[in-house]
Each structure stands twice: as structure tokens, then as C-alpha cells.
Amino acid sequence: MAVRYDDASLAAHPPSLAPDYASTRRRAPSQPLIIIPHTLSELTGPVYGHETVRPGDDDLTRQHAGEPLGERIIVTGRVLDEDGRPVPHTLVEVWQANAAGRYIHVRDQHPAPLDPNFSGAGRVVTDAEGRYRFTTVKPGAYPWRNHPNAWRPAHIHFSLFGPSFLTRLVTQMYFPGDPLFAYDPIFNSIPDPRARDRLVSRFDMDTTAPEWALGYVFDIVLRGRDATPTEEPHDD
Amino acid sequence: MTDPRPDGLTPSQTVGPFFAYVLTPAAYDTPVLFEADIATPDAPGERIRIEGYVLDGDGEPIVDAMLEIWGADGEGRYPGAAAEEPGRNAAFRGFGRTEVDSNGFFAFTTVKPGPVPGPDGAMQAPHVSLGVFARGLLKRLSTRIYFEGEPGNEADPILSLVPSDRRRTLVAPRTTRGADAVYTFTLRLQGEDETVFFAV
Ligand SMILES: [Fe+2]
Q1: Could you tell me which residues come within 8 angstroms of residue B73 by beta carbon, excluding any fewer than 6 positions away?
Q2: Dmax of chain B from CA atoms?
Q3: By the CB < 8 Å criterion, does A169 face chain B?
Q4: Which among A88, A163, A169, B18 is least surrounded, fewest beta carbons within 10 Å?
């Protein structure tokens, strides 16, 4: 039979068109997406693991001669699938602005200082239990031109593969209690507030390293690995 | 070991405009993990170039998109799926990533995939899966590149799900440039001749 995962969970994602986020208006497809069965082309995927990272890729505070300015933080969490299984040995790419809210990207024109000791690019691989961890500095909020006086809440960009081409995910991690949440059309493009909250990391005293760095926990849930055509529907 | 069932998926967010220095960092100090040329010498199949533009609803080039491809080798084997046949296409990773340039132009070099199994025992025509990320895209757009002149296109089980007047947006015309086979695939994210995108 044709295999297709239960896709009710995809409702957690934002729609393609979120008019308050102006860039979606001319980029979102106007035609409905066509639903296709999951074939080998969707159920297989690139496998990138430990061979892709170098020592130090997981510490964004030690990639230059000196230490970056800013509040040093540790970010850790688990990558799971929808059924609660860990996603082991999968590559996680992260990038972020520096503590002043400035990216090293050539097109970032925000008049905040670059930090010669901070690039903001990191790579980690999950362990056998799906755990990842990296050290960085807390990124600053930054302005953008979406609407008058628009500011992005502080965030770290995440890119993950998971076990197949359909589990690929690019997202952003936020910090608890950010006063900019209410004004951010990217964050608010997610229709379900509970789903939105899953992008907000949790301050964690156990992760916090004494005399060194605050700890934040951010768990990530990718699509389930197993075809479930014969399984009973989940009643949640 | 399985944890309690999580509350739900982690929602997608846009890749934004500033991904290049980690995801496609050729112009930066970050080591490059993923390339646009993935045609390794050991991969069976015809060497092809897939190129085109990414355009928005006004027909304007999108200059800050990232594209990813996933395809089988010329014998229809996906990397990983071929692990039981050691020594065969071991270096071919099947996965490529590139950013568009300042004209919205992209190009991949790979091998033309062979047919791969589809649903209900049907074979799928040769195709490459394509993911599109960009500022303004809150989630990945998924589509497929098919190849002009392939006999399997007519009966392909996925193409058959696409209204016939829109199928041509997925079938890349073939030209030759010198000795190279070039397939042109233009992505129109919105509007007239809008590229077909799939819910996967
Ligand atoms: Fe950002």
C-alpha cells in the first residue's frame, strides 16, 4: 500500500502566507500544495554525523583569538521524533547574531558593532540519546524593516536533518520571557500558541555552569520515522 | 528507549536572510560541508547540470534562497539504501546544497538518477527532490525535478497527481552546452506558471 505518515501534526507549522510577515506576500505559493505518498525519495535522506564536525565547532566562544563580549550561555537539549524516540548522530547547524544583535553576514547593515571574536556559526551532532550541547553568547535583538520599529526577539537559528529528507527542519530558538514576542510576525506566524511555545527555550539551573554560563534547554521534535498505516490513530 | 510522546512537532521558522556563513559558507571562514557539485567519480549515471532561477510572485529574482537536492544514482539507488552493496557508489552522497547568486541563479552538478520504486510497486520516473528555503518562506517548499524526454514521465505516480496543465512546471527541458547536458528548472514561487509544490 502507499505509505504516508499521519500528517495532522504538520498543523504545528506556520502557513506559507502570513501577511504580517511582509516577505511572505510575494513568495508564498498561491496554489494548494499537492499531497503525495511518501516514497523512497521522501523516506530516505542524507546521513551526516560525527565526520562533519571538528573539535570546537560546538563552542562559539572559542573560535577566535579572544573571547566574545556578551552573556555566555550553554544551550542543550534532545532531538526526538514525534513518537518520543531519540534522533541519534544527526547534524545540527546553528547560527546567530552576536550579543549586540549583529550578524557577520555581508548583507547585515544593522549599525551595531561586529565582534572580532565572534562569528556565530556552530555545528554539533546529537549523541546516541539524541542529545546536543553547545556554548555561545546570548544573541541580541535586532531591527528589521518589516514594519515601523520592527525588532526580532533574540533567537538562534537551527538547521536539522533527521533520518530522512522529509524530516528536514529549519527553525529558530527563542529565549523565555522576551518582551518582543507579541510584536514579532515570524514567531506569531505559528497559529497554535502551544506550538509557538515549543520554540521558547527554558532556563535551566542544572545546565547552568557555576561561575561560567547560564543554561538553556531546547528540545526539538522532528517527524516520526515509522510509517504508521496500520497503527491506531493517536487520540491526543 | 522511547520517551513519553512529545506534545507535537517543533514548528518551522524561516531560514532568514543571514544563513550563508554557516549553511553555504564558501565566502566565509566556516568550512564548507555541502556542495552544489555532487557528481562523484564512482556514481553511475550521466553527468548533468541542473540550473535555473528562483523568482517571486512579481517575476523578480530571489537573491537570498538556499536550495537542497536529494537524488538517487544512475541506477536508482539512494545512498544508504545502497549500503548493502559495499564498494558501489560509496562516495556518492546524493545530497547537494547551494545558495542562489545575486541574480537568483543556481546550478547543481549531479548524475541523472535512474528510476526508483514508487507506491504500490509502480516505478517512478527519474527525478530529484528539491527543497527551497529563503527569507519569507516560513517552511521549506518541496518539489521535484523531472527530466524532459524520460519515457517514465507519462506514467509516473507522483506526476500523475499533478493537474496536467501544471506538470510542465516540474519537467526540466534539456539542452546541451558543449559536451554537457543541461536541464533548466525555473522556480516560480507564486503567480503565473507557479511551480508545483508538494505536501510531504
Ligand atoms: Fe535571525
Answers
A1: B43, B44, B45, B79, B82, B89, B92, B94, B111, B113, B114
A2: 58
A3: yes
A4: A88
Query: Could you tell me the residue ranges of all domains in chain B?
Result: 20-188
| A152 is annotated as an active-site residue | yes
Question: For position A234, what pLDDT does the model report?
Answer: 44
Q: pLDDT digit string (tens) for B158-186?
A: 999 999 999 999 999 999 999 889 999 99
Contact across the interface for B64 and A107, Cβ inside 8 Å: yes
Whole-Å CA distances, B106 to A136, B129, B137, B185: 33, 15, 18, 10
Rounded mean pLDDT, A4-18: 88
The CATH superfamily of B20-188 is: Aromatic compound dioxygenase (2.60.130.10)
Binary contact (B161, A31; C-beta < 8 A):
no
Parallel, antiparallel, or unpaired: how do β-strands A169-174 and B171-172 relate? Answer: unpaired
B15 touches chain A (CB under 8 A): yes
| CB proximity B198 to A under 8 Å | yes
Interchain CB contact of A200 with B (< 8 Å): no
> 10 Å Cβ neighbour count for A196?
18
Specify the pLDDT at position A2: 52
Instruction: Choose, out of A105, A106, A199, the residue to mutate when testing the contact with B (most B CBs < 10 Å).
Output: A105
pLDDT per position as a tens digit, A115-135: 999 999 999 999 999 999 999
- Please give the distance, rounded to the nearest whole angstrom, from the Cα atom of residue B59 to the centre of ligand 1: 26
- Hey, are the CB atoms on B116 and A2 less than 8 Å from each other? no
Average pLDDT value over all residues in chain B: 93
Nearest to A77 by CA among A18, A132, A150, A11: A132
Of A9, A37, A103, the CB nearest to B18: A103
Ligand 1 centroid to Cα of residue B135, in Å, is: 10
Residues 6+ apart with CB under 8 A from B160: none
